[in-house]
Amino acid sequence: SYKIFGSLKFYDRKEIKDAITSENGEDSRLSKTLGVSTYYYAMQYNGNIIRFSRDLNSIISVFLGLVPVLV
Fold first, then answer.
1. CA-based nearest residue to 28, from 6, 56, 9
2. How far apart are CA 9 and CA 24, in angstroms?
3. How crowded is the C-beta side of 32, counted as CA atoms within 13 Å?
């Protein structure tokens, strides 16, 4: 069994379920709280599940900032 800090409502999230069964999980969806497209990542760490999230717009802007360097 894993400790999940915060709300129990996260147990039904895809990234949490995947992290429990395969050490890590990820998903992208519209955040009901923030109202923006969000990337979620969850992983096992010392018997706990840790969940991270990031606004997809900020991830895309970082990538686009690298494009001139890659070309």
1. 56
2. 18
3. 3
Q: 50 — alpha (psi -120 to 50), left (phi > 0) or beta?
A: beta
Per residue in 5-42, pLDDT (tens digit) is: 555 567 789 999 999 999 999 999 988 887 888 889 99
Residue where the block lists tokens 């969850």: 42
DSSP H stretches of helix in 4-55 = 14-22
CA atoms within 13 A of residue 47's CA, in its CB half-sphere: 2
| Residue indicated by tokens 């599940």 | 49
pTM of the model: 0.69
Whole-number Cα distances in Å, 26 to 15, 52, 66, 69: 5, 9, 23, 27
